[in-house]
Prior knowledge:
By secondary structure, the chain is an alpha+beta fold. The protein has 14 helices and eight strands. Helix 12 packs across helix 14 (311-328). The longest helix has 23 residues, at 227-249. The protein starts with 12 loop residues before the first strand and ends in a 7-residue tail after the last helix. 34% of the residues are buried.
Amino acid sequence: MPRQGRIDAPGVIHHVIQRGITKGRIFNGKADYEIFAERLGKLVEESKTSCLAWVLMPNHLHLLLRSGRDPIGRVMQRLLTWYAGYYNRRNSRSGHLFQNRFKSILCEEEPYFLELVRYIHLNPVRSGLVGTMKDLERYEWSGHGALTGSRGYNWQDTETVLEAFGKRVGKARRAYIEFLEAGFSLGHRKEFEGGGIFRSAAGEVEYINADGRRATTAGDERILGSGDFVEEVLREAEKREVARSRLKRSGWDLEAVVKRAGKEAGLEPAQVRGGGKSPRQCRARALVCYWSVSELGYTGAEVASRLDITGAAVSVNVRRGQEIARMEKLSLGRR
């Protein structure tokens, strides 16, 4: 079965999960954890992404992110690609570090937001790394300590989480700790990781309702939420796909975008591609990256190959191109 595309929209929350290949380690010591957390913080700040909860474990990680300026997929690609390169260089290894691509589950805020914060921050308990709340407090590689005030990560969005527990910080922190303690006995929750659901050909999922009876509702394994929420998310995703399809039917492909961006900068297509670094060339490449990735749905690898630049450069240029297009009111709606 072909893999489904990711679903994203500004302001929605995602439970992101990534595991090491063949369940292998992805962190070998304090330096690895520190540099990953530092890179995560830098990227969420740059992309205006809100990090609500997070935990790093020896062979996997969980993040709860709210989409900001950049799609979650782009943020995670930059984070994981960079870290895999760092890890391989540090350990004189080659090959894949992570198991397949990361899993991202778009989540309905109510009633799942606080449940996911608790589920993620209790991961060291479920994995047997810690056994008590005091031990959990000492576990450095998690957002739990920032919420209790025992350590600080200035890039973590603690305010949003604590506000859900009370207006006064001290009272909110105590309520948060009580909430976590109440979840100590809770085990693995398949539904929080995209499992435990049964999709039908019609896009429905089976579940057990409050009466203990089997029922169905609209569902998608990429989305955690009620049937109405799933349907709304899918409708919005379909609108974006329709807009992309309309542009492609109008003749917009990578080559057409290169020509259009070159025309805006007064350059020939051959001058847009390649390694030239004049302001006009940089401007044109930024527009190519933004229009191709964000508006037409091309992958970063496809754009990188066409422009003869790196995937990391594509990610940076998507943001630059978005800003240029916004400031100068440029779009692919006209030639």
